[in-house]
């Protein structure tokens, strides 16, 4: 039997003696009736007292919640049964009738009935709807201590101090009181009669069985939820198990162990267990099938009086002398571990299963761990070793044990592990591919063991170590109650430590850079070097955590999924209706295990934390994307941004002008501030703006603000400081106009206009001042005239000593002309993006076709759009080249010719490179194997390749990619290994080399570059690119038949482009426009070639460019008829934009005069191809030759020359066809 | 007791050497060792110095020493300096006198194999008795001769008596990279474990990790490991060679890396081999010609 260490207490209350307990079926509530007459309603999850009900007089012994209604019932020593509403928080009514203490009260599971047991020796059934007594069951001849309804059948079981347990049949009662659906008259009569004749007999409720066996009073009795079993607890300290059939009932067995009165007992709702509580201060757990003790939990001082089970979840409560405790028997956290896309976990049945996150599928049972540990103790942890495909499972049974087991490749049911290694330890985890660490807390050692379970090294961890976790390669995280240590296994010492109390779990981020340390109420994020990054506190219990790929930690509490960023910023993701253990986040899905160890997927909205993360990382593209694609607006995000110091970003979201103004001021965006101030036009805003603008030195904004505020003085001074004399003069005028003399004086002072000042003084009769001013500036005449006007003479005046006349400083720099050049406030990326200026973010992702020399004056976005449209249609574009030889006629390459040149000398084997050549009939594999001769041979046979020089770079490229150099023993050259494209393969007859720049790469990279060069008119470059593509495809391999078709498409396309570009380049080489125009022969050729340029089957948007080019040239040479045909073709190709407009215009122009001035060899109605060598037409019907590789066409006279397009193959030489797939 | 076993005195220095942490070997404080381990420790330190390119100093150091171990080290230094013939001569002499000396076996094997005398090397090495270094060398020689089958047998045999030694793990990984398939991943684990633990990380095992990644087709991870390695030692020729291969595989222009490899080690097998193949190509291409010249 195990000591009480396993008890998982979830809640405890302090009160007087608790006599009755009831769990709410849905909410985390528990009702406790006390000896002190109070009934308490607790939230055991939050640990808070919700309510108190105090109407009983004296102890309350029985309470019960109604299953569906907001009701509960209580019965007390005041003989009263009370029915309460917890919503209105009052007693609804009282049922009177019992004549002594009431021991228990219970609701019926479906009928509106209550059963009560009383010291008056009766058991009564009440209807709480019409508040009547239905039935009184007599028979016990001592106190009835407990009575309960059967959960399904019409039975009641009761226990009494008369030492008996009785089972009552109440089916008669149900019949009598069930709804009168179809009742005959006789029935009604008999029913009425029955009711009356019921005076003494108990036809409604008859004793079915009397169970005798206890030799003291029985305190409690309970039915099993599903099986025909009864358990009872008595003062004889025994727990008895009874079984019943239809006709009889008998005692099955007795559980002995309590050494004081047993006061309560019950069946575990889901497991084959019995729980009992007694006055010996213990709670005991018994195996229902073996009737042996499984656990016992002892309390120091308190006798237990009652025990109850939650109907749904794995929770129990027991009432004792000083309150109640809510507890669990076992941990419900399923042991689980995640490796890449797989979750390994242990189910309630102790089966090991895996779950694939990609397929969202559970595996069948991989392994059964039934034999591990004791049957009632679930495994605690599982650790997975991908290299060995083994698991390490720990169990708290037998004071901690671990087991190392290999997983079978694929599960096929509950297989017992064939071979396992076990040992004692409290924690066991893999620390390396072939090592695991085992912690033994009792003797405080950590052993490092190898896979054969031998200890390779052993050390003493820091004092008080309670758990160990993986700490990164070669390290352990050692958990003590107050400190976490990072321990280097090699050096046997702590390399870092961090004071975090009560850590229970450690969760590593996917990249292994961060770990989250979870304790009961705290999450601490640390780096892999155990430096604290952030920490947060939760009032509610933290259950689990997992990392998002982006470095956001999602954690679950009892009722929420929350997130935290590395900087500690956190929030709620969603609420939970049941506790789950998170294991993985992927996109919008959170994978978790619930308490029954079933994998579940929760959907979440990651927008909020992604946004915040993007903000922290300043990843504005991501932010913009989020803003555009989700409804993330509103006050919360604005205030968040502002609070976090990103007013400039918040500014982008705000519409409200006042807020915008505030934000603009905060981030110094004067433009926006001015705009908003204008809109609002409030003096307060203007003055704030002026202050801010002044600080920025932006005087024009300051000026505007002062003007708005009519602050003339400040304006004048501003003009003085900026040296704007003309405006100062105007200010003086305004002042004069306003009759504001002070202002006028000031302005005059600023302007240095002495006369004006004197004039002003005179106007306001301040002659002495006028005189003084004149005098000090040496204006004697003026002095005289003043004296005269005032009728005084100079002698009459006593003058102070005059200093130098004051003159205002002269502006050095005309500051007023412009604002000081301030450093351009860098427009954040984000703002740009919002303004649509950022490439790649706006929908128009190609700003314009650059440097378009095809005669397009303005290649607008419209053109780009048409190009894209055209490209989108790419697939529909029929590759009409008649080159496809069909695979059927490709003869198999004979094996015989393969050059086997393995040098057997010196006992050496043949290298893998040689194998490649043997394994494959593809030229590329021979190249990679370094067997160039055979590769050339193959190409010659397949496509008539004769000129290999252009292929040299490709040959060497493929060859270079084939080998790696592994540094091995010191002093010897590196070991050469061969890189395969068949990574999974180990059969030497099937291995094949890796191919750089495979088909997919070419199609996504090179082809696009080629198209771009076409668009931007870099034809030489383009020609090289397309030839490069041809060479790369020639020496290549694909993985399926369908890819062969893709490759052929690519070859054809590249070939057509190469021909087209070569024609246009040829035309340009004829000479400059002037030279060509002067020479009629050249002009003719030029026009012809421009026409041929439109023939190759290139992408429609590109062909439009060729057509436009040809059309413009034709018009310029007055070949209106030909031009008309081009215009028509352009229009027929459709699309939009500039090209079509031009074509329409030219069409109109040409239709007026559809004649050609220069006769050329181009029949717009004839079908023809262009000879790739001579760039002249090959009309359909005439014979031609072609290149067996790229399909370019030639006049017959070119037979035998090297193909002008690929530069490799001989024209007209027909081979077996290119082989890319074996 | 085997001084190289897990509890032996030499385990750390021995592991450092084979993990490619040569500087740590040189810095190892050998003064506290017991007398019978002093010579092996000195040999390891001298070998580490040779590996670090201080062959001349080493040669001067062992000048005039008569112990076979030190003579063998001298030969190794000679060879590192390019005097292969002299080195081979010394080894052949030592092979006559002290073929049962494990240092003579390993160093002799190394020198002979480097001189292209694989048969002689194998003959000398096969006389070993429980010398894991010799096993590793035999495995490497077999692999160089493309006799993967023999290498597999050798490793399997060694596994039986030295279950978990570093050298056996390494040798097994070398073989694994030849075999491919699942073995790639297992080899990767070994290299990664060494490369990513700060105590055992070295340029050589980082490069090895990268090679394993490359074979597994994980080019990005390979790139990361190589970057890490070349950051530690930018002149490590094998690292550069592998980077070059990686660049080619991922379709990037390898020109720059080729340049740096030429600078660091113009005679690296990659370059010599490539030059050879380039000539081969030119020669082979002359066999073909168009019937009509354009």
TrEMBL record, chain A:
Q: Where in the cell is it found?
A: Cytoplasm; Golgi apparatus membrane
Q: What range(s) does the Coatomer alpha subunit C-terminal domain occupy?
A: 829-1220
- Residue ranges occupied by any COPA/B TPR domain in the UniProt entry: 622-778
One GO molecular function term of this record is: structural molecule activity
The way it spans or sits in the membrane comes to:
Peripheral membrane protein
| Pfam families in the cross-refs | B-prop_COPA_B_2nd (PF04053), COPI_C (PF06957), TPR_COPA_B (PF23953), WD40 (PF00400)
Please list the residue ranges annotated as the COPA/B second beta-propeller domain: 349-594
Instruction: Identify the stretch annotated as signal peptide in this record.
Output: none
- Compositionally biased residues, Acidic residues: 872-881
InterPro entries assigned: Beta-prop_COPA/B_2nd, Coatomer_alpha_WD-assoc_reg, Coatomer_asu, Coatomer_asu_C, Coatomer_complex_subunit, TPR_COPA_B, WD40/YVTN_repeat-like_dom_sf, WD40_PAC1
Q: Where are the WD repeats?
A: 53-94, 95-136, 137-178, 211-252, 255-296
Q: Does the keyword Lyase apply?
A: no
Disordered as annotated region, ranges:
846-881
**Cross-referenced SUPFAM superfamilies:** Peptidase/esterase 'gauge' domain (SSF50993), WD40 repeat-like (SSF50978)
What keywords are annotated for this sequence in UniProt?
Cytoplasm, ER-Golgi transport, Golgi apparatus, Membrane, Protein transport, Repeat, Transport, WD repeat
Q: Which GO terms describe its cellular component?
A: COPI vesicle coat; Golgi membrane
A single BP term in Gene Ontology: intra-Golgi vesicle-mediated transport
Coiled-coil stretches are: none
The annotated subunit structure for this chain is: Oligomeric complex that consists of at least the alpha, beta, beta', gamma, delta, epsilon and zeta subunits.
Record's function text: The coatomer is a cytosolic protein complex that binds to dilysine motifs and reversibly associates with Golgi non-clathrin-coated vesicles, which further mediate biosynthetic protein transport from the ER, via the Golgi up to the trans Golgi network.
| Name under which the protein is recorded | Coatomer subunit alpha
Q: Which organism is it from?
A: Podospora didyma
Automatic annotation (TrEMBL), chain B:
Q: How does it sit in the membrane?
A: Peripheral membrane protein
- Is Membrane one of the keywords? yes
Q: Which GO terms describe its biological process?
A: endoplasmic reticulum to Golgi vesicle-mediated transport; intra-Golgi vesicle-mediated transport; protein transport; retrograde vesicle-mediated transport, Golgi to endoplasmic reticulum
Name the domain of life. Eukaryota
Listed A to Z, the keywords are: Cytoplasm, Cytoplasmic vesicle, ER-Golgi transport, Golgi apparatus, Membrane, Protein transport, Transport
- Gene3D superfamilies in the cross-refs: Tetratricopeptide repeat domain (1.25.40.10)
**Where does it live in the cell?**
Cytoplasmic vesicle, COPI-coated vesicle membrane; Golgi apparatus membrane
Question: Does the keyword section mention Transport?
Answer: yes
Q: What Gene Ontology terms describe where this protein resides (cellular component)?
A: COPI vesicle coat; Golgi membrane
One annotated GO molecular function is: structural molecule activity
Principal location: membrane
- Role of this protein: The coatomer is a cytosolic protein complex that binds to dilysine motifs and reversibly associates with Golgi non-clathrin-coated vesicles, which further mediate biosynthetic protein transport from the ER, via the Golgi up to the trans Golgi network. The coatomer complex is required for budding from Golgi membranes, and is essential for the retrograde Golgi-to-ER transport of dilysine-tagged proteins.
The UniProt entry's sequence similarity note says: Belongs to the COPE family.
**The protein, known as:** Coatomer subunit epsilon
Which organism does this record belong to?
Podospora didyma
